[in-house]
Hints:
By secondary structure, the protein is mainly β.
Amino acid sequence: MILGMTYAKFVAIVLGGMVGFQPAEHPASKDSQWLVTAGTNGKDKTPVGQEGFITVERRPAEELAWGFKPVQSLGLSVDGAGFIGYGVRKDYRWGDVQLTPFFGPVLYQKSLGNFEAKQLVQFRTGFDVMYNLTPAVGVGVGLYHISNARLTAQSAEIDVTRVTLQFKY
Length: 169
């Protein structure tokens, strides 16, 4: 459960926000971004990721369609889990504050080098709240969930709460 709700409700809120609202055009939205994040998985969930998750994301500025922009991610946990993914996001800005919900599939393994086909395809859903320190650097916090919506028993069930350093280029 994410913030006390089911995965379906969490996805509905994130995707509803992405589809239901049109982001206002903002000059900073023309910037591509690199994010470097560090976070941990909740202690009541799967034991993977409790010692730390490092994620690197590339967020290109080009729009795909209907205000959606791409997000490419790579994450590794200290205890050996890893994922690589491609998804969509929308950036909402109010002055120096940015809210970014995102969603997309990831290829996930809870133990790198120990391939398990049934757990390979998962989905990553989350959001980040960023604050611009300078025109090129921001800091923020966020949350993402990785699971397969319990389509198989091999669902990752990871909730990562993270802090973020954002670089714009």
